[in-house]
Design a protein that fits this description.
- The chain is α/β, with parallel strands linked by helices.
- It has three domains: 178 residues, P-loop containing nucleotide triphosphate hydrolases (Rossmann fold), CATH 3.40.50.300; 105 residues, Helicase, Ruva Protein, domain 3, CATH 1.10.8; 196 residues, no CATH class.
- The protein is 54% helix and 9% strand.
- It has a six-stranded mixed beta sheet. Strands 7-9-8 form a three-stranded mixed beta sheet. A three-stranded antiparallel beta sheet has the order 10-11-12.
- Helix 27 runs antiparallel to helix 28.
- The longest helix is centred in the middle third of the chain and has 30 residues.
Amino acid sequence: MGNPFEGFFDSGDVLERVGIDITGQARRGDLEPVKCRDAEIARVVDILLRQGKNNAALVGKAGVGKTAIVEGLAQRIAAGDVPPALKDARILGLDHVSMLAGTSFRGQYEDRIRRLVQALQADRNLILFVDELHNLIGQGTAMGAAMDAANMLKPALVRGDIRVIGATTGEEYSKWIKTDLALERRFQPVTIEELDAIQTWEVLVARRPRLERHHAVAIADDALKAAIVLTDRFVTDRARPDKAIDVLDEACAHAIIAAPRRRFTSPPVVGRAARRPRPPPPRRARAARSGGHGEGSRARRRDGGRQRDRVGRLIWLGGVVVAVLSMGCRERAQAVQGEADLKDMVHRMMPLVAQATGLPFKHEPLVLRRSRAQVRDYVIHKFDDDLPPADLAGLQSALRLFGLIPDSLELRPTMIDLLTEQIAGYYDPDSNALYIPADIEPFQLRIVVSHELVHALQDQYVRLDSIITQRHANDRRSAAQAILEGQATVAQIPVLMPEQKPDTFALGWFWKQRSAMAAQQAQMKEFARAPLWLREGLVFPYLGGADFIVWFRHKYFGRSVLDSMPRSTEQILHPERYAAHDEPTEVRFAPGGADTVQWEDNLGEFETRLLFQQLLGDEAEATNLATGWDGDRYQVLGPKSDALVWYSVWDDAAAALRFTGGLQRAWAKRPPDPKARR
């Protein structure tokens, strides 16, 4: 019988034989979403962009998500969210088995390595991912090869002819890679730490939609929390997030088995399985002091017992994650039943939204119900993620020093209460899902779904997260939000009222509806008592952004505003500045200041206008004083965050003089604060 692998590499592309196209999987949407690994991915990108020794070694415990970092990089490459040098890159995963299969004779393995290196050298856009990097040491020598794979790759690695990302554990890296100094210096190690509980929560939230689709179940937030808490308590020999994902997957599978044998009109809820008995706490086996023939068998029995204990704990925890949710399963099941109607509404509205925006849907988004408590949890999670404690303190100090919020107002609880009250639905880019609160009035449902569907469509053409989470770029971020909300506001009108043509509305029509919209929202308790900066900041993206969208559609018929978005609220307020490519002047602080910088950002024209309106009480005068803005930047300084330095640029001397006089009058009306310095 001949060699079944003979000619395996003689025809076709060697990379197709031994490589798995991870970037192709990302473009098809086959990969799981990757969360909380931005710093690690950025570090890998830095290494890949080096001229020489541009090879990264991901080192971390099993289960921390080393492969996920490579998948996250592949997803960014597929989305174009990488530097230009990596825009056309392809990541290929090495299949060790295919490399070794059929290498019966001396020279076959070396030939395969040679062909692989030649293929990688021929296309500089290729990046090889080697999982279990330590396996390269000694690979091939058992088949009669003169040297192992690592030694055959070294020359190409050191010259930078090929780029490799490896992944291995700390123990294996120390044992195999560090002992080969020539190989070690060709790799730049990237330490991958275990995620904390909050980061693991984000990973589970991002993975929930896929698990729900695969298992046809609905996963409540409590299930995610239980998966994290219980695995931390009982599965101490494995790392987050892998152990939490495994337990949640097990719980979903168990929910299907334990659910009544009937045809489901809606998915079963994770929370209906019978409680499993709690296992006894695992005992630590003592090391046998005496030798002898039976010692090895006893050790093997102990190892097997520990493995069974670990598997048993995982199975039991899956049952517990299911069982702890039994109290809330009825409410969740009712919500899932309502989701069927929502999905039907989404399916019917999608063609109308696509027609209104001129952009076809690439895929249908998910739609799920959420309780008001879950909406609040989401608001808290997003707020804390966007503004960590240090950033929150800096921003709050800045707003107080400017006079945009009272000194007694605590920003975090005020914002959380206000947003929880105001949110009638939201689209989450992390999970590609529309979330509709369960307590929404029926007449609002079509309004909310049509609006959020536009956001889902926008996310398929631009990365919403990268737009709306820009740090220390407040004005640009406000302009981007105005485009996203304004486009959604304009596009939903013909969806809900086909007889209305927003393109025929007079320019500025939407902003004139502000008083009516504010009067309606003033009936809500949290909105009514919020400061002007918060109230107007909520309204501006919808109405100011809608006016800009109408102008854009008149000016640039057939073009998408998402291809070239405004960079400042000045361009939103004065669209002619956008048409003239008049971008704001970038203001930068010189490095080396004596005081400690607690926060740095800018206001932009719109918030400068709000500052004057807040302090002077005259909207028309505030508009006049802010007109002519061309850029600004401020810093909050001092260990007590009691000093404010603000620089601004104006179109001409007359505008600068108006601003200076107006600011002196505005701050003169503020109650004196002996602690503040401006």
